[in-house]
Amino acid sequence: MTARQLPVASPRQVRRAAAVLIRRDARAFTTLIVLNALAAAAGLVSPWLLGRIVDAVGAGEGTRTVDRYALVIVVCALAQFLLTRQARFVGHRFGERTSARIREQLVDRVLALPASAVERAGTGDLAARGTADVPEVSTTLRDAGPDVFIATVQIVFVLGAVFALDVRLGVCGVLGLLGIGFATRWYLRRAHGDYLAEGAANSAMAEMLSATASGARTVEAFGLQERRVAACDEAVEHSRRTRTRTLFLRSVLFPAVDVSYVVPVVAVLLVGGALLDRGAVSLGTVVSCALYLRQLDTPLDSILRWVDQLQSSGASFARVEGLGQEPAADPGPGRFPAGDLIEVTGARYAYDGGRDVLHGVDLTVRPGERLALVGPSGAGKSTLGRLLAGIDRPHTGEVTVGGVPIAALGPDELRRQVVLVTQEHHVFADTVRDNLRIAAPAATDDQLRAALAAVGAEWVDELPGGLDTELGTGAGATRTDGARSQQLALARVVLADPHTLILDEATALLDPATARHTERALAAVLEGRTVIAIAHRLHTARDADRVAVLDDGRLTELGTHDELVARGGAYAGLWRSWHGGEPPTRAPHPRPPGDQADSITL
Ligand code: ATP
Questions:
Q1: Homologous superfamily of the 342-579 domain (CATH)
Q2: 151 near 295, Cβ under 8 Å?
Q3: What ranges do the domains of the chain cover?
Q4: What's the CA gap between 596 and 602, in Å, rounded?
Q5: Given 197, 208, 330, 567, which residue has the most CB atoms within 10 angstroms?
Q6: pLDDT tens digit string along 353-374?
Q7: 260 lines ligand 1 (CB under 6 A)
Q8: What is the whole-number distance in angstroms between the Cα of residue 591 and the centre of ligand 1?
Q9: What is the residue-averaged pLDDT of the chain?
Q10: Homologous superfamily assigned to 11-325
Q11: Does residue 383 have its Cβ closer than 6 Å to ligand 1?
């Protein structure tokens, strides 16, 4: 497993979250309890009256008494049917409303997740929580929850009735149920952990497969096919093992329980028979108790049918709730950047507890300046770019904008300060207007058109629906090529209007003609902003106000192009070799597929 999965809520947090959800719909929940209790009470009448009928017939009473009892049985059965139906209806509505709340909460939490947390976890984990765990929880709330609730109330009432008729027979019934109790306890002890492991293995498998598919070109380019296939096989095998484990639990529980059903009835008939012989109990009471215990079949079946679902959905709910445990960005009370000055002080950074890749970088970026970051491949340029863009936070030292740590700013505030522009851009399956409004939800159509004009995207006016044109790959949607997608992304930058832009290979993957076109649009976007460019081609550095040279995670040189060339150090060497036509940097280091170095892309 390469990705660090998102947090999972503890059982206590899950219980608290469930209590909050119930409180939010307390009226429906109370109605549910009352209806179920009434339905269960109505269900108790028939076995008791059947016992009375047996005793009445034994005592030689006439058919009128039997008819009266029979009529009450019919009325109670009808009442039970209607009450159960209504309870189910209320229960399902409660379940639907609650699962809608969980879905809405999930969307809010996913959107509030720090970009770095999503990157580390990978899209597989998030996708699995949204597409597998939420439906699992919804099924429980809609179907399993109400059914189990009704069944539990019925069991409590039935056992209460047996005890009320005869305590000794009640004890027999409860002892007879111990087998089911032991089997279920054995199962529950193992199930939570095993279902969590199954969920985690599914997420890891989804992540591994999607990362391999999306990084297919890189895999081919670096000849990593065998390693990736082996890693995928391992993830699939791990997922299979965890599923087999939960299957084993079910295959022990269900047969054990099936056998245990008849035990309480047999125990009551044997003991009841002995008591009847001694005249310690009436035949009617024994019959009523045996009928009551036979009635337990249905609710027990219902609980055990769903117990598996409850376990796996408990684990799913813990994973859904876990998203709320990831600490959100927090600049501290009332702290807003005072000014545009960006300062890096003593910044050290390591990926996921590995070795430091930045070793105490100090750098001040003045408002309005153009700063080029140069250095050999693997020197830490992109990593420093991520710290400057607030995607990651140094483990030691600070990166601040206007005196406030950048990584602590919420997404909206961060977007107003700094935006990282990379080669990755995304066009959402939505209208042009909504694609642009992601960056500025309150922007008017005129502002959207001005932003499009600034990046040379007048082609939008020629689209049949203008700003209302649906983009994407679906039927009836307009596709956008690389250049147009990049223009839309840059128009978003114009709308977000940050004072600082960080450019990391913004045009690197485009063909030369498209790149030229895009660079013109980019030039319009850079106008009047602070620009930090991770320079892969040294002419970018020559045109910059200052050049910062990184080598092995350290800032080794800082000054204007002319000063650094005159100094004759590392930059001068790079410049000479580049100018002389030789490659300016060492060969790029391979990254694992799925590792998306850049996440805030507009
Ligand atoms: P390049 O010019 O090739 O992009 P760079 O100067 O931008 O290189 P970085 O990408 O910042 O360098 O990498 C600095 C170090 O951090 C390298 O040793 C790299 O292998 C490591 N690194 C980068 N990204 C990750 C990651 N996601 N997980 C683990 N290590 C990483």
A1: P-loop containing nucleotide triphosphate hydrolases (3.40.50.300)
A2: no
A3: 11-325, 342-579
A4: 15
A5: 208
A6: 788 999 989 999 999 899 999 8
A7: no
A8: 8
A9: 82
A10: ABC transporter type 1, transmembrane domain (1.20.1560.10)
A11: yes
